[in-house]
């Protein structure tokens, strides 16, 4: 084999790997799509109270059957699933059982608020968790490192709803310095409206950051502590390079590669990860929409929110697969070999 002909098998191998990954994502999406349809129907109870209103208990069996038939819920599951797939191909998620509102419209209104809330919290969580993880990793086994580990694990173990209730009680009720529900206050315009939204974000974002830094902290701490004894780091120390320069140039970049994967995974759960916090603070995002849909057994809305979460997770995992080789030269070299 000549030198010029070597890259062709490498390109073929990369193409096969890409096709294999794409096939894997398609298979996962198909399974998730089926679960998205079946999971709402597997919950105890049913949507009859939502469909028939508060007086559903007074309806006779014939009237109840008529209500169920009007929404096609009396048909076999495979027929309902086929109709669901047909509508999905047309990008039609159906109408909510609660008021007949299009599910796409409800998701379109709730999604930006969730992206603002959880997007902000994920970025802050990653920044704080990585910073504390680097400090703890460099001081592993010493006083400050152990103290950081204990404090982060304490917050990580605390339930988000409990921390949220404490924040409402202290900052909202006792001190009265921060709003405790919603995203806006009537009467604000311009810059005042921006500041009002920011003030409403402080408590829910703070809760998400406080209870979410554990994963970033532990991953960073372990990576940094492991990289301290890597051959290239010890070689740099032996050459007399200052410690700070060794940490900045030779240690952090390879040590933070797992953080990239963790960040993508956190972003993958961006859509539904704040369900508890959005419920506690009455925040009108996708998590609150999902919670209300589950309570009312609103099948179309549950299917739409679950599907949005599934697509987000798959997209973020695909981005992690695509961007990881750009950060790790070893993977690029392996693909060229």
Structure at a glance:
This protein is 75% helix and 0% strand. The chain has 337 residues and is mainly alpha-helical.
Q: Explain this structure to me?
A:
The protein is mostly helical and 337 residues long. It has a domain at 106-336: MetI-like fold (Orthogonal Bundle). The protein contains 15 helices and no strands. The longest helix is centred in the middle third of the chain and has 37 residues, at 191-227. The radius of gyration is 25 Å and the shape is globular.
Layout of secondary structure:
Layout: H1 7-42, H2 48-52, H3 61-70, H4 77-89, H5 103-138, H6 143-157, H7 160-174, H8 191-227, H9 231-238, H10 243-255, H11 257-268, H12 275-280, H13 286-295, H14 299-327, H15 329-336
Summed up, the helix count is 15
The low-confidence runs, each spanning 5 or more residues with pLDDT under 50, are: 1-7
Category by helix and strand content: mainly alpha
Proportion of residues in extended strands: under 5%
CATH architecture of the domain at 106-336, by name, is Orthogonal Bundle
- Tell me the span between the first and last alpha carbons: 14 Å
């Amino acid at each position: 084999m000549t030198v010029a002909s070597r890259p062709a098998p490498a390109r073929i191998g990369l193409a096969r790997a890409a096709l294999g990954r794409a096939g894997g994502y398609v298979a996962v999406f198909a399974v998730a799509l089926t679960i998205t349809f079946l999971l709402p129907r597997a919950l105890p109870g049913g949507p009859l109270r939502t469909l028939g209103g508060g007086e559903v208990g007074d309806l006779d069996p014939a009237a109840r059957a008529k209500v169920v038939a009007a929404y096609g819920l009396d048909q076999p599951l495979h027929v309902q699933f086929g109709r669901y797939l047909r509508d999905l191909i047309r990008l039609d998620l159906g109408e909510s059982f609660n008021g007949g509102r299009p599910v796409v419209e409800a998701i379109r209104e709730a999604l930006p608020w969730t992206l603002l809330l959880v997007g902000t919290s994920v970025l802050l969580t990653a920044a704080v968790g990585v910073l504390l993880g680097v400090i703890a990793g460099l001081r592993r086994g010493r006083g400050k490192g152990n103290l950081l580990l204990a404090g982060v694990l304490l917050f990580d173990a605390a339930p988000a709803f409990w921390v949220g209730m404490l924040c409402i009680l202290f900052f909202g009720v006792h001190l009265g310095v921060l709003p405790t529900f919603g995203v806006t206050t009537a009467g604000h315009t311009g810059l005042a409206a921006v500041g009002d939204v920011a003030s409403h974000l402080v408590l829910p974002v703070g809760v998400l950051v406080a209870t979410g830094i554990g994963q970033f902290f532990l991953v960073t701490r372990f990576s940094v502590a492991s990289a301290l004894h890597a051959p290239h780091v010890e070689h740099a120390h032996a050459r007399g390079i200052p410690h700070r320069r060794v940490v900045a140039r030779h240690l952090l970049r390879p040590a933070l590669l797992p953080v990239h994967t963790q960040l993508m995974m956190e972003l993958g759960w961006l859509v539904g990860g704040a369900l508890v916090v959005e419920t506690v603070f009455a925040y009108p995002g996708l998590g609150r929409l999902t919670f209300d849909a589950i309570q009312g057994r609103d099948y179309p809305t549950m299917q739409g929110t679950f599907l949005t979460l599934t697509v987000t997770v798959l997209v973020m995992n695909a981005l992690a697969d695509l961007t990881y080789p750009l950060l790790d030269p070893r993977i690029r070299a392996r693909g060229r070999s």
